[in-house]
Design a protein that fits this description.
The complex is a heterodimer of chains A (95) and B (508).
Chain A lengths: L2 H36 L1 H4 L2 E2 L4 E2 H41 L1
Antiparallel strand pairs in A: 1-2
Chain B lengths: L5 H23 L5 H6 L6 H12 L2 H14 L1 H9 L3 H16 L5 H4 L5 H35 L3 H48 L5 H12 L13 H14 L4 H4 L8 H41 L6 H50 L6 H25 L5 H25 L5 H21 L1 H5 L15 H18 L3 H16 L4
Classes of the chains: A mainly alpha (95), B mainly alpha (508).
Chain lengths: 95, 508
């Protein structure tokens, strides 16, 4: 496999993972927004002896999801993307 | 009640200003080149930049505005807390690393990389200045009101003080001073909010559910469900789109990625920032609900109709006037820091994009670039003060939301397509940025908050307070349609080189 092909592969992989995680974040957030905008009574449904509602819990979940997805990406990039890029760059330097 | 606190508040604030001016003096001696002025020489660490990003982002609108909105209207305020965070992961996944590898000082460096410089730089400067001006209005109006309420100073005196102190930071200390002001401010804000939240929860057996239960007992089921703020469902969705994609188009946030040494550090710094900001918005749940139970909605609204004083009043109830003074000073420091970051990004657009690349065609000396940047800084400080004076009394949260709509429509589509789409052309990118800016501004003028509330017309021409749902897709369509209609082979050819550098970094 030549250098160009390997770069293509890693680059495509990074954008795919980025797009996938972006999709996950959008699904979580717009799911929450659509619930709030379209199903107001469901969002207001009470939980835990009436001390919290579905909407409040889901809002907190979306806030927690954001840094968790970010952490997933950073972990992947640090472990797999960076070494691959470094390898490619070293190859380029040798030439 | 507020007057009593004057002494502590003023002492804390003066303390903050003296320390930060000291740092500015130190930074000024290290600011000799444009790279130091605009990007702190690229020597900021991941944790430092994470805090600085959080500092740039957590404005008075988040601390005072959202806590106030939660206190006043319960669940509706929480919708904002959630929305302000969700753009951060998107920026991490799509923008941060390529931006760091491809650019130098501004996001226009990235868009213009393989396109013709002039049209792209001019378009990017227009959109940057539109976002910066809009955001400045929100911060300056917020600052004027806040200082008036907290310190009893006249509104105009307050905005002149903010403008002058901020000018000192940016003019002399550039990005190095601005970064440290952000770091200190973010640490103070996170710490102050956390202490306040612990004091609230201590009254409810450290159990948030007990606190929420008390809110429902006092204000009924309505506090837990979507209410008046989200009466128009399209408004809610439109604001959501602006917030989600606007973060990745904010020039003062994007500029921060140039202050770190490489893409890996940029990635780690944005992960830190997302965690800090997420933590902060979870805390606003506790602060807002805590204020509505412990201070009471009537008392909060009596001090300020917008509810912006909920957090300071809560501090007063829990820790007395001394704590109120400290929290007030932190809120003031917050505004000061955000205004400094905005001004610096505006100065970069004017000095680097317009003067350096368009007027001087990329052939500009260090000395001249720095001088132009400093002149631009002074001009922007004057503009900030003028905008603050002109828009006195406007709704701060709505204006910030509209600034996000401009960023999401004018900057984000062109930036994303320039990194991912081979066929993007100069015409497509420039048209997308200009049309994104102009249509967003136009729809903002025609929306209910401006056309009816400000200009006193009978009925709004455009029904939504935030135009994101129209303008973000429009900017994408414009960029794609024009690029396909008038192909630019040189740009498509340059894509491979851009992509190699975008992923492998400068050495590649």
């Amino acid at each position: 496999m030549d250098e160009r092909e390997r770069l293509e592969k890693i680059v495509a992989r990074r954008w795919r993972i980025g797009a996938l995680l972006t999709g996950a974040m959008m699904a979580a957030y717009f799911g929450f927004i659509l619930l709030v905008a379209l199903a107001k009574s469901t969002a207001g449904e009470l939980l835990a002896d009436g001390r919290v509602s579905v909407g409040i819990v889901l809002g907190a979940v979306v806030i927690v999801v954001a840094p968790v997805l970010t952490a997933v990406y950073v972990r992947w990039a640090n472990r797999h993307y960076d070494p691959a890029v470094k390898q490619l760059r070293d190859l380029g330097d040798k030439k | 009640m507020i007057e009593e606190s004057n002494a502590t508040a003023i002492a804390s604030f003066i303390g903050f200003v003296l320390i930060t001016l000291g740092i500015t003096y130190w930074a000024a001696r290290r600011t000799r080149t444009s790279a130091e002025f605009f990007a702190a020489g690229g020597r900021v660490s991941a944790l430092q930049n994470g805090l600085a990003l959080a500092g740039d982002y957590m404005s008075a609108a988040s601390f005072l505005g959202i806590a106030g909105m939660v206190a006043r209207s319960g669940f509706d305020g929480l919708i904002y807390s959630v929305g302000w965070l969700v753009g951060w992961p998107v920026m991490t996944f799509l923008i941060a690393e390529p931006l760091r590898n491809l650019g130098k000082y501004t996001f226009a460096d990235v868009v213009a990389y393989r396109l013709r410089q002039r049209p792209v730089r001019i378009a990017a400067a227009i959109s940057t200045l539109a976002v910066v001006a809009m955001y400045l209005i929100a911060q300056m109006v917020g600052a004027g009101n806040l200082i008036h309420l907290l310190f009893g100073l006249h509104y105009h005196v307050a905005i002149v003080i903010v403008g002058a102190v901020m000018l000192a930071y940016v003019l002399f200390g550039g990005m190095i001073a601005t970064t440290w002001v952000q770091i200190i401010k973010a640490a103070l804000l996170l710490l102050g909010a956390a202490v306040l939240a612990v004091l609230v929860l201590a009254k409810f057996g450290m159990n948030p559910l007990e606190l929420f239960g008390a809110v429902r007992e006092k204000y009924g089921d309505a506090a837990f469900a979507p209410g008046k703020q989200v009466a128009n469902r399209w408004d809610t969705i439109s604001l959501g789109i602006a917030l989600m994609f606007g973060t990745a188009g904010l020039p003062h946030i994007l500029m921060r990625f140039y202050t770190v040494p490489d893409a890996r550090t940029a990635r780690r710094s944005v992960a830190y920032a997302t965690s800090f900001i997420g933590f902060f918005y979870l805390v606003t749940f506790v602060l807002g609900f805590g204020a509505s139970v412990l201070v009471g909605r009537e008392a909060i609204v009596a001090v300020d109709k917008g509810g912006n004083m909920a957090a300071p009043l809560l501090a007063n109830v829990l820790g007395g006037t001394a704590f109120l003074g400290v929290i007030s000073a932190i809120a003031f420091a917050t505004i000061l820091a955000v205004v400094a970051g905005l001004t610096l990004s505006g100065a970069a657009a004017l000095a680097h994009d317009v003067w350096g690349q368009v007027v001087r065609d990329g052939k500009i000396t260090e000395r001249e670039q720095l001088r132009v940047a400093r002149i631009a800084t002074v001009g922007l400080a004057v503009l900030a003060i003028a905008l603050g004076a002109a828009f006195e009394g406007q709704n701060v949260a709505a204006i910030v939301g509209q600034a996000f709509a401009i960023a999401a429509s004018a900057n984000f589509p062109a930036l994303l397509l320039s990194m991912t789409w081979r066929k993007l052309t100069t015409r497509g990118a420039a048209a997308s940025m200009v049309i994104g800016t102009v249509t967003t501004l136009l729809l903002i003028v025609l929306c209910p908050t401006v056309w009816v509330d400000l200009l006193h017309n009978k009925e709004a021409v455009f029904p939504l307070a935030n135009p994101g749902i129209i303008t973000v897709p429009l900017a994408f369509v414009v960029a794609i349609a024009i690029s396909l209609a008038w192909p630019e082979p040189a740009s498509a050819k340059g894509f491979d080189g851009a992509r190699e550098r975008m992923h492998l970094g400068h050495a590649g």
